[in-house]
Design brief:
Layout lengths: L12 E5 L3 H12 L3 E5 L8 H4 L31 H14 L6 E2 L4 E7 L4 E6 L4 E4 L1 E4 L21 E4 L13 E5 L3 H10 L5 E5 L6 E2 L8 H9 L2 H7 L2 H13 L6 H17 L3 H6 L12 E2 L3 H5 L4 E4 L3 E5 L2 E4 L4 E3 L2 E4 L13 E3 L6 H4 L18 E3 L12 H20 L5 E4 L1 H15 L26 H7 L8 E4 L1
Parallel strand pairs: 1-2, 1-7, 2-3, 4-18, 7-19, 8-17, 9-10, 9-17, 10-13, 11-12
Antiparallel strand pairs: 4-5, 5-6, 14-15, 15-16, 20-21
Length: 493
């Protein structure tokens, strides 16, 4: 079966890959223009990361009122930070309110995208054989959606229940059980704070401790939510105030001046949080990182240090030798008997739209273009792949701020490129190889000098050890997204 069709006369046909936050955003914007589009979603529901992740304690570390579309504020958040199911419900609500669901094909995993140079169109192939021809592809597939399993000998031999945090099962045995938790990024920290009082014992295996940034947590009363409904400017006051957005700008200003006052302030907050929160000196030293704060993505938590001191929790900082059927054997011979093993070991952060095969001009593949590292010109477009837009693509800003805001800025930038097609000023656009190379040269040089490159291992680093993210300030990204530099683009007539 095939629904292979050409773009309608007088309008663009767009394929959006992914029905998570960014894909829904693109769909809303295109629907508001009355354009022809389809969203291809590999799963049976919308939601992206908030669909995939369902582990206990799942919480967004961006304030809830800042983690919404700018055009769709939400008065009903129950607390300053929202839990995963609440965020999923928000995206479900928005999808229906804006009439996007009829435009989504569920269980439609994209397997290949091929550019036809003569026709200036993409052919997008879906598992099962369907193909769609479109003028534009929007890759909104996200970053963290391919679970990464740890490379530990004997992992498959474990006889108890083993589960990755992104493949959580509701029947995972927790209550009264001996639980091992491998990994202590944001996910591991959140799981520990959610289950530590339910278990018989919890062994938290951490390869390296984390710096914890203390943050406020409070719930909103019925009266406060009523006030938000009556006056949305109260929501904006939270979203754009100095406590959130001001702090983000100060942090991103500081990443390129790692010995400046902004980074010193962050490090002092984190150090004092550790010193003043952990009573046992031995545990305090176990939890003290040997790298600078913010080298890894900062953990925002209002309760981790309190919860990790619960008597059921044991922090294991030794090296794991192997997994055995009954538990985990350490290099020093210590053996931890376990009933359940939770793998909070993150994702393959270099996949993006892959494993779908993407072929651009001259038969060039995205795999070949990204042989050294995934990269995109200003995190939106890729040389050799015309009319191909990435939202939250490689080299974009990452950190403790809303990626919704980043995607909205990227969409505003991309719309100006799409206008070239709409106005018949070009049939295709792509950045030149020279412009992209110059961008990457500057980005890599700057990235190596950021706090992310100051000497730790993290998922921020690419295969060569270079930080893969935007290395300049938040305001610099805002400025870059105001308008594409058309001289840096190849336009085909």
């Amino acid at each position: 079966m095939s629904d292979k069709t050409s773009a309608p006369a007088g309008g663009l046909k767009t394929v959006i890959v992914g029905a998570g936050m960014a894909g829904i955003l693109a769909a809303i914007k295109l629907k508001q223009r009355g354009e022809d589009f389809v969203v291809l979603e590999k799963a049976a529901r919308i939601g992206g990361t908030w669909r995939e992740n369902r582990y206990p304690g799942l919480t967004c570390d961006v304030p809830a009122h800042a983690y919404t579309y700018s055009f769709e504020p939400y008065a009903e958040w129950p607390a300053y930070y929202a839990k995963g199911p609440e965020i999923q419900a928000y995206f479900e609500m928005v999808t229906d309110k804006y009439g996007i669901r009829p435009h989504i094909r569920f269980n439609a995993e994209v397997t290949a995208l091929d550019w036809d140079e003569a026709a200036s169109q993409w052919t997008v192939r879906v598992a099962g054989g369907d193909a769609i021809v479109a003028d534009v592809v929007v890759a909104a597939s996200g970053v963290l959606h391919h679970p990464k399993l740890p490379d530990i000998a004997g992992l498959d031999s474990f006889a108890g229940t083993k589960v990755h945090s992104a493949q959580w099962r509701e029947d995972t045995p927790i209550d009264g059980k001996r639980v091992g938790l491998i990994g202590n990024g944001s996910t591991g920290v959140q799981i520990l704070t959610a289950i530590n009082k339910r278990v018989d014992k919890l062994v938290h295996f951490q390869r390296s401790p984390q710096w914890i940034m203390p943050v406020p947590y409070f719930t909103y009363s019925d009266e406060e939510r009523a006030a938000f409904r009556a006056d949305p400017s109260l929501i904006d006051a939270i979203r754009y105030n100095d406590e959130y957005l001001g702090a983000i700008k100060r942090f991103t200003d500081g990443i390129t001046d790692i010995d400046g006052p902004q980074m010193a302030e962050i490090e002092e907050y984190c150090r004092l949080n550790l010193e003043n929160s952990v009573r046992d000196p031995a545990l305090r030293e176990k939890l003290r990182p040997n790298y600078r704060a913010a080298c890894k993505r900062l953990i925002y938590s209002w309760c981790y240090y309190e919860e990790v001191q619960h008597p059921a929790v044991f922090v294991e900082t030794g090296r794991i030798e192997r997994i055995e059927p009954a538990g985990v054997r350490m290099v020093d011979g210590t053996f931890h008997e376990l009933d359940t093993l939770i793998l909070a070991t993150g994702f393959h952060a270099d996949r993006f739209i892959r494993p779908a095969g993407v072929t651009g001009t001259g038969g060039q593949t995205l795999d070949a273009a990204w042989a050294v590292r995934p990269t995109a010109y200003y995190a939106v477009t890729v040389p050799g792949f015309p009319n191909f837009i990435m939202l939250n693509g490689p080299t974009g800003p990452v950190g403790n701020f809303s990626l919704i805001d980043i995607a909205e800025m990227q969409w505003a930038y991309a719309e100006q490129l799409l206008d070239l097609l709409r106005q018949r000023k070009a049939r295709a656009f792509a950045p030149t190889a020279e412009a992209h190379a110059h961008y990457e040269e500057r980005r890599i040089a700057a990235a190596k000098k950021t706090i992310f490159g100051s000497g730790c291992t993290s998922w921020y680093l690419d295969a060569t050890g270079v930080p893969a993210s935007w290395p300049w300030s938040y305001d610099a990204f805002v400025d870059a997204m105001k308008a594409p530099v058309l001289e840096d683009y190849a336009l085909s007539a």
